[in-house]
Amino acid sequence: MKFGISMLIAVVLMAVAPLDAQGLSTSMDARALDDASEFADSLTFSEALGSGAQAEEGLDWRFGVAVASGLGVPPPFAVTGQQARGMAIRAAEVAARKNLQAMIASIFIDASTTVGQAMSSNDVLRERVLGLLQNSRIVETSLRDDNSAMVVVGLDLHGEFADIFLPRVMGAASGGVAPHGGYTGLIVDARGLQAKPALVLRILDEGGRELYGPTSAERQAAVEHGMAVYHLGMEAARLDARAGGRPLQVRAVRAVGTNRTDLILSDPEVALLREGLGGSKALSRCRVVIVFD
């Protein structure tokens, strides 16, 4: 099921009535690097607004959203059509949020842990996530002739959700230097490696030393926009404003970790990365795009 981008914007902007907790089951150029507001615009839905892009139900790592639907039917004891429709909508909301919970539980936090695993082992974290699910946004509500209902809900994987799971201590904000060669960001080609998206991305050299990750990314940028954008095609990655108008492109040679979310670069690619973007703001501000399949 696909939903227009206007619906996805609603995921961020629309208000929604809360659901009781018990109802839940257990994305420029080099100058832009200095302009925080322009950076923010490039990482929201602004690029997609004029593109006709669609977001599918499920985990959409282009926009950093999770979208789930639920069906509801009126109970047999409903007295009026209005009551039946209201109860069906309520049941559909509960089902949609239950499905959303199962969906986000499968998200990889990093190379070894899922959201579900973290929720199972930390009650405080679990309650924070359940609170976000309780207030997840209504993207669409539709009624059928038989008074059954379908509700679509969405959760932003940036902002408060990301704040829960990103390391508390990450790279500090710094002035940085202008990227060598005028590179505005980084594209990593990880196709053919069975690489998977994660909230906490690490790009490593052959010796396991971190080239990009929590120690280099500014936490505020990572929370607000994610550590990277993930695309299924190179054309879409090159068009994404996240990496700017002149991104450096490298290719990963392996995806590692239990969840296959950490990416390894060969020595020649490491040299390219260090020469092109070493110490620049592009990496600290999370101007990273990953291409996977």
TrEMBL record:
Keyword annotations from UniProtKB, A to Z: Lipoprotein, Signal
Leader peptide range in chain numbering: 1-21
Keyword Signal applies: yes
Protein name: Putattive Lipoprotein LPP20
